[in-house]
């Protein structure tokens, strides 16, 4: 266990995250920035009914502290939920966390000292980058292609490194921001590459329930479930995308040794996650309400994704590329050569459309040829208008580039 807060280090991505949170909820804007569900999708009635129906003793318990590891009935409900994902719950332990970002933060605190190396994907979830930077890690990004992290690049980096990285952080299912899902083959190759190297794998699985087609369900098998070698995999999950981020509920599944230290760190951070939220979520799971809600969400997000893909096809100029996601929240758009997403943003925000620039997700804060569009948060009837405005902003940026090129 490593790091004290007094040594915390500046994070270059923290500013991006603050801006992102602000833009995501900006009024009078069409926002493709928000990586969160639309407010109209939340299960208000179900949660209201659950609270009303709680016996008085449980209502009182909602207001109370609870065990650091989590509310025991929620841990039990999670066990069977994770077992259905083929995860090895018996030989591991569950820690309920205040959002899965807290789980990522705890693992970083447990293993990382200033100057230690963390490997990530490139691009990478910016919340995790901020955590790693805050603890003073040296972050090395490995590119992803449409099937996952590029194994040859990973091997080349591993060969060159001056010291062993503390862990590799990956989001194999419905990646934020790249929108991809790892192929089964790539997941196995990754596990084989790490086998015997003593490098932890931190597997972030915040989106795997949000596939669009029933037939794609099998893709999302976690690596922690596939792992037959000696790779130590720490698995994290979240209720944020399947119930609501306001619950601030996440969890980790880790070996008993890793769990023990993580529990101590959590105790020092916030003693326990809100009992209120844990009890409501446990009832939601126990009543079988989650599955019905997921069926509804998958349909909603699929419609939004379809609308966005249609609009991109309709409005975007030649030379713009994207990968159609099979689940999750995001479309990762590649701009024509020489166009920076920062400049497109400058034009589109003037017309009331926001998104997140590619460099936000680059461990080095560079690579700005991409932009991330989220279809989860935007009302369906604004998608086509918003993509139309974005396409105009892009065309304007391209004209400026061409003019500049002619002059110079
Ligand atoms: C890949 C990924 N992991 C983790 C999180 C954090 O979720 P939570 O709200 O559970 O902290 C997010 C949120 O956007 C995410 O995209």
Automatic annotation (TrEMBL):
Entry annotated with the keyword Electron transport: no
Matches recorded under SUPFAM superfamilies: PLP-dependent transferases (SSF53383)
Recorded GO MF terms: transaminase activity
Transmembrane regions: none
Ranges for domain Aminotransferase class I/classII large: 47-387
Signal peptide: none
Required cofactor names: pyridoxal 5'-phosphate
Keyword Transferase assigned: yes
Keywords recorded for this protein, A-Z: Aminotransferase, Pyridoxal phosphate, Transferase
Name recorded for this polypeptide: PLP-dependent aminotransferase family protein
